[in-house]
Amino acid sequence: MDYKQANAVAKKLVAQMTVEEKMEQLRYEAPPIERLGIEGYNWWNEACHGVARAGVATVFPQSIGMAASFNPALVGEVADAISTEGRAKYNKSVQYGDRGIFKGLTYWAPNINIFRDPRWGRGQETNGEDPFLTSAIGSAFIRGLQGDGEFYKATACAKHFAGHSGPEGKRHGFDAKISKKDLAETYLPAFQKAVEAGVAGVMGAYNRTNGEPCCASETLMKILREDWRFEGYFVSDCGAITDICNGHHCAEDLPHAAAMALKAGCELNCGDAYVHLREAYEQDLIDEAEITAAAERLFTIRALLGEFEENRPYADIPYSVLRSEETKALNLKAAEQTIVLLENKDGFLPLDKSKKRTIAVVGPNAMSRTVLEGNYHGHAAEYVTVADGIRREFPEAEILVADGSPVFEGGYWDGFKDLQSEGAAAAGEADVTVLCLGLDRGIEGEELGYDNEFTDRGDRKTMRLPACQMKLAEMICDVCDNVIVVVMCGSCADLGEKVRNHAKAVLHAWYPGALGGLAVARAIAGEFSPSGKLPITFYSDKNTLPPMEDYNMAGRTYRYMTEKPLYPFGYGLSYTTFAYGKPEIVEADEKTVKLSVEITNTGDVDGWEKAQCYAKFTDSRTTTPNCQLCGLAPVYLKKGETKTVEVTVDRFWLKAVTEDGARVEPDGGVTLYVGGGQPDGKAEGIGL
């Protein structure tokens, strides 16, 4: 069924409704209309890394980790598996008459906001700091989730449009002031590419952007509907329309706020502000034609999901897919490709599995299930913590386990607060210590309800880990020579010079999903070569960060920062080495440039290489990025193997953006580089 056919179905249904019934259908808890045979439908569902909040489902790595895979095709596989599980759960919910919250097929994911500031607590839900990477990963997720059948298998919703990336504590009244250049160059491209990928929904942000509440912004809606020709539905973030009145003070009361949003083009309200549409209608703030148009757009989406078909599509997907061994294997594969190897001194890793030794697994995240999940998560049928994984992968070793400290002071009740001595005792008995540090959703995340020395309502105040963990880490380094640090959190972590200099290896594993502990253990054991790359710049605690409230991109991310970071965007080590030839242009037209490059695995281990293509601009009429990621080419190479890899670059990413937000042909030169990270001054590029 195409959009036109679905819209015809929607129009026929909506034409039979009263104006009151149509208004009720614009709320996320849409009631049934029994006289028309229309069931109730709850639009609110989440699935950024697995079906969330609806019981048992596969918990994949959190979105920031999936971005670290630098592998859009893998993300597409994951999204396809998510929607398959979602359909299976939906089929059973319908069978048992359960049409409540988190049971529908309209998933409010992916979050494609730009992770412009590493302190932002919700950055873990995003695809990182780069517009191209965010677009590539986000588009793959959208296509995988929605499927390519006659009907949507599920629908994706790109959020939060636009300019949302903190501060969490101020979001209900915050005005993100963004220049036309930064808006066009950084904040909007991923949404444009999501529309091109066919995304069914777009969610508005809580904040204002340049003075306009995002869920009632005529400026943003014009870009979305007129410039990009978006045909899907627009939904408010939850409670955001109420914020128009109570937080932003842009409307005198809730009927006026509801009218502002509806007239701007917000068809669906998550929250209860659209209860006041009746008052707005009675006060002539809106008319029936506007209500009808919104209802028709929403019912078009429901028709495209096959809700009104006599034979409901995908009804044959059985509940048993939730026990699928193939999905379990995919989850492990995904977790493995998200891990970033930051340090590996003198090739300390991998460890020999056959050697008898004592391994201590110490730290607040050694035995934590919470850290595997991240936020916006489901519940897995099986979890493998790092301690569990080490036991499985090192059967010849004696395994000692200790918490050592809470994630944060106050994280445990007093009887479990001060455990550094226990952690040091375990490490002092060990030949090798796997030190599991990091955060969890209780200290970084969405609008947490507290402010302390480490977190401001979910946003971090420092790149260092909490003091209790830093104390533990330094104690461990004093008593154990061979320390492997595993960090699990949603952003960067500065371990400090003492720990960083002492550690034999450092792995960053993000929030790695239900099988994340097994993936970490397999990496340490050398069952695969780590291939993850950093989707964000890793700042040290000494790097200068602009105020979080400042949305100017100057000085932010690898594209515009001038200081040396702790680790650069795109960085990640391997157990093997790769050599690149000089890239060649094999095809070019007005839309794309196709490059080819030879890549050779010059080491002794098979593994993935995540080839990255960057553009560098010279002599441009406007400020351009230091360099700009514009292409990806993941490739698996056996030791000694050479492959010729092709990278297709959309010329969209080769344009310069002027101060008025226009994308123009650069009047200087553009050079393309292909390598395992950002151009280092030695790489050979090719000019266009």
Characteristic terms for this protein:
688 residues, alpha/beta, TIM Barrel, Rossmann fold, Immunoglobulin-like, 3 domains, 6-stranded mixed sheet
List the domain count as a whole number.
3
Kindly estimate the percentage of residues that lie in beta strands according to DSSP: 15-25%
CATH first level of the largest domain: which class? Alpha Beta
Strand order of the largest sheet: 9-16-15-12-10-11
What does the oligomeric state look like here?
single chain
**CATH domain topology of the largest domain:** TIM Barrel
The overall strand count is 26
Helical/strand content category = alpha/beta
Count the DSSP helices: 20
Distance between the termini: 42 Å
CATH architecture of the largest domain: Alpha-Beta Barrel
